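Researcher: Structure prediction, please.
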Amino acid sequence: QVQLAESGGGLAQAGGSLRLSCAVSGKIFTVNAMGWYRQVPGQARDLVALITSGGGTIYGDAVKGRFTISRDNAGSTEYLLYLQMSSLKPEDTGIYYCNAVGYEGKDHWGQGTQVTVSS
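Model: Predicted structure follows.
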């Protein structure tokens, strides 16, 4: 199994910055791509950013140029995934979920962390 634990959410003002972290543990050798998704009440989870095992990145249109995803695969028992969020907007508010996709295609999710951006 793969376990994910997010941290770093909270309250920020518009124009400010936050950094989210996700610790990925367990059978990390099975993990391929990792990413961040955002969900607001009544809506599906939307892709914020994704990073492949080779370091390739994909960003949602709403965050391009403002958010940066990165990963640290150096650990032997844990991977670290980050999301640096800058120039925050109120519409960035939501619950942010860390996601890891195994080479077999299985999805793993964290419990989510709340991000609230005030205007």
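Model: The first strand starts at residue 2 and ends at 7.
Researcher: Thanks, that helps.
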